[in-house]
Amino acid sequence: MVCFRGYLAPEYAIGGRLTRKADIYSFGVLLIEIVSGRCNTNSRLPIEEQFILERTWELYERKELVALVDTSLNGDFDAEQACKFLKIGLLCTQESPKCRPSMSTVVKMLTGEMEVDDSKMTKPALISDFMDLKVRHKQESIIDTRNSSSYNTSSSTSEHQDTTVISAATSTFTTQHDHSM
User: Fold this and answer.
1) Where are the chain's structural domains?
2) What CATH number belongs to 2-125?
3) pLDDT digits (tens, 9 = 90+) for 46-76
């Protein structure tokens, strides 16, 4: 799943919840990659530039999106058009699926049938936020495991006895299930 890390919508990557707008998120990342001429992640770059979506948002806030356009074009591009596509990519990667445009709206914006309205654009769901959440969740799980094991070994309350009974019942069930195979 590592190769999909930068393309998965946050609601799917973290919660396993697939929405109608999950593909819109992926399309937004892809659109930004096309305009920038680079991959969504590049660990060889300085930390602040490693994740394309984070870099795009930072440049958008500073009104410097044009700096993200593929350098191999040597300045031979329509800056207004390139920035428009980058803004569409950002609209597609909004954290909340409800804030992302429909694909038909995206097509209309790309073809010029509809203006790009970035007035209500919010910070997209960023990969570093996911990684932080996963690291935090993993650390909390380790702490919970340690607390549970020390609780079970040192506690002698009736709660401990209930926990032991439940664990024993689960173990017994598993053992019986294994014997019946």
Assistant:
1) 2-125, 130-179
2) 1.10.510.10
3) 888 888 899 999 999 999 999 999 999 999 9
